[in-house]
Design brief:
Layout (H helix, E strand, L loop, with lengths): L12 H18 L4 H19 L1 H15 L1
Helix pairs in contact: 1-2
């Protein structure tokens, strides 16, 4: 990714799914009750939250934009 600005890199759903899966796997390896396992479990929940919540503004924008054009 030489020459590509970090903010210009598109994160795909597959990348997010991999992050969630990696957190789940790592939490199991570390032990769900360990400090690291609990933090990874929290991070997994965060990634899932962001993945779900980011669709709402996109859908709202499409509704507004479509209403203005139709």
């Amino acid at each position: 990714m030489d020459g590509v600005a970090p903010h210009a890199v598109k994160v795909t759903d597959t990348d997010e799914d991999r992050s969630i899966q990696a957190c789940a796997f790592s939490a199991e390896v570390a032990g769900k009750e360990s400090i690291v396992g609990r933090r990874l479990d929290e991070l997994q929940d965060y990634y899932g939250f962001v993945q779900r919540e980011r669709t709402a503004p996109i859908e709202e924008w499409r509704e507004r934009y479509g209403a203005d054009r139709g």
